Amino acid sequence: MKILYLDTSSSFLYCAIVKDNVLIGELKLKLEKDLSTLALSEINNLFIVTSTTPDDIDKILVVNGPGSFTGIRIGLTIAKTYAWGLNKKISTISSLEAMAVSCVESFDYYIPIIDARRGYVYAGIYDKDYNQILSNQYIKLDVLQATLDNLPGTYTFISNDSFDNLGNIQRYDPDFLKIVAKYNDKEEVNPHGIDALYLKLTEAEEKQGEVQNA
Fold first, then answer.
1. Region 103-171: CATH code
2. Residues ≥6 apart with Cβ < 8 Å to 117
3. Does the predicted TM-score (pTM) go above 0.90?
């Protein structure tokens, strides 16, 4: 079984092709503002160097957020179009799930965290078996830190963002084999029914709400 993994929820393009639990090709590219223009060509190159055709893929695992609003839309557009056009199975996972599963060191709790600006973060808390202890959410960083005071055991943050006074932060480097092994059996969904997992309103939606409540 060949699985295509795709994550464009940050400034990175994370993409991999896994065949029967063997990693046959991967991309870990920091594209930043070039993500929208280069993502498709880089994915196409991955297919070429791994001698894979789009029809060879049996299932797509795509990250639907949280993270960059623009980045999320790029990955979802590619994955949904691919799945619909070639009738491929597709499942979604969150960026925070992928981050927690990829941690290489052992702790009692894993806390994936993404900077959402203005003192807020996207975060969740997972135990050592990757069960959710705190649901993925848009939360004030100081509220999250207060929650950690009640954790009975060791924990680490996982992130590629910089935070002051957080202490132990593991750099996020996706472990494609672990991610795919854990989520390749996740329930498939209709491509047309996939929604972005923003966890917060867009700036336009927030401004509209302010106007309505004025």
1. 3.30.420.200
2. none
3. yes
